[in-house]
Amino acid sequence: MLKTVKSIFRQKCPNCEEGSVFHSNGNILRMKSPGMNENCPVCGHKFEKEPGYFIGAMYMSYGLSLAELGGLFLLWQLTGLPLSGFIYAAIVLLVALMFLNFRLARIIWMYLFR
Ligand SMILES: [Zn+2]
């Protein structure tokens, strides 16, 4: 179980847990999206099982975003900052974590249905 969680955060193949799923992490400043391998470089496992397979990963991305916003909100409440600035901080946080959420959402989706 712990190895699986570790493999999810290391973004490894759901089949062998060794090969990298992504060949590039993407760069928000250059507006370059993450690059995903079609097959695992170690075991050859095909990541996109069928067309539209990753549409369900949007639910994972939504959940991750809500969790991050919840964490930010709790932090905001603990610091006692005025609530009017929360929306701007939330936008900055979500944009900054956009590609990380994209990658983690796909990885979690693949691990759910392996
Ligand atoms: Zn593999």
Jot down its keywords.
single chain; 114 residues; mainly alpha; binds zinc ion
Question: What would you note in describing this structure?
Answer:
The model has no long low-confidence stretch (mean pLDDT 93). The protein has helices at residues 2-9, 57-79, 86-96, 98-112, and strands spanning 22-24, 35-36. The protein has one domain (2-112). With 114 residues, it is mainly α. Strands 1-2 form a two-stranded antiparallel sheet. The protein has four helices and two strands. The relative contact order is 0.19. It is elongated. Helix 2 (57-79) crosses helix 3 (86-96) and helix 2 crosses helix 4 (98-112). The chain starts with a helix and ends with a helix. Bound molecules: zinc ion. Zinc ion binds at residues 13, 15-16, 18-19, 40, 42-43, 45. This is DUF983 domain-containing protein. Keywords: Membrane, Transmembrane, Transmembrane helix. The chain crosses the membrane at residues 59-79, 85-104.
How is the main sheet built? 2 strands, antiparallel
| Helix/strand order, N-terminal first | HEEHHH
**Unreliable runs, pLDDT <50, ≥5 residues?**
none
Instruction: Work out the helix count.
Output: 4
Instruction: Estimate the global geometry from the Cα principal axes.
Output: elongated
Number of strands: 2
How many domain units?
1
Keywords: Membrane, Transmembrane, Transmembrane helix
Protein name: DUF983 domain-containing protein
Transmembrane segments: 59-79, 85-104
